[in-house]
Amino acid sequence: MSRSRRLGLVVGVCIAVASSALPAGAIGKAATRVDVVATGLNNPRGLRFGSGGVLYVAESGLGAGDAQHGALAGIGLTGSVTAIYRPGTQHPIQRRIVSGLASVGVDENGIRVMGPAAVAPWGRGAKAGFDTIISAAAAAGTDLGKLVRISRDWGQKTELADPGAFDLQWTIDHMNDAFAPSNQFPDANPYDVLVSNGHTYVVDAASNTLDEVLPDGTVQILAYFPNSAVSDVVPTCVDRGPDGALYVGALDLAGFVTQGPGTAFVYRVDPAATNPNDLNTVLNVATIWATGFTTITGCSFGPQGDFYATEMFAGDVVRVPFAHPATGRTIIADQLTLPSGVAVSPNGAVYVSTFTDNPQAGTGQVVRIRTRLR
Hints:
The protein is mainly beta.
């Protein structure tokens, strides 16, 4: 199975996993209240807050399907972005502000979908908008694999770059001297985007790379995350930490299937140490910051500097203290159904997309998690 399809097919692997996948003695529990703040979404994935406290949700769509038939195999224009206004109130308002984005349904062990996977808001007021990354390998004549900018009027769509095509070619060019095991390349599946400090970063879940997209649309590779004989990293999310470094969470579905819970890592990349013109730096600049995670699909830092990660097959959300990533971890919510994106509001409420890989139309949700440590 192609790695570019894996994130649209992960639910086809049905393995039960306990919520206590982190090392014994390193887990706390939190008294948690979970409220649904948005419903009727089509395979919601990445979440991020924009100006005015608006929460944006990338919906990967229904492939070639529709609301009546659900997801169908093939390429359609069913991807979208939803905005949730006043998500912290008792009566949030949701509105699908962009539709008609590329989405692909893959008929392999049931219909699974890839499409808009992440959003990255930028600007304020009339100059505000957001970028969205369209997952899956590049396909001619579509938005698949591309980074798309949506302006404030929500109707203006501009292609910023094609990281899917670039990453695919990069793996072709280097698969003989850089990658192991080489039979998993070439491949590409851009999956998360971050706009931070004037830079635009993309994580590719199939080429195992952290990219930077320059203002002129040029793509360059900053870091590569190596596989091992028993793991397939599959980086899925990126956020900037309190120290200014970039932190990248990994799915490692292969490690989970072969070894069980706790095989996934979080990597740290110092942007100041990167050099896209030096392959040795690209291959070695990423370092492991924290271990013991299970199938990370979303990550975000909160206002106090804590790191949050969704663990798809554990069905939970983990909070990690930045200063002590190996200890003091807390499961703030469990028994969620296929959690994916995560975003933290200024007041510390945690928002998570759930039911994120389902062939039925309108089953996706966003939930709000409020915790009180025991």
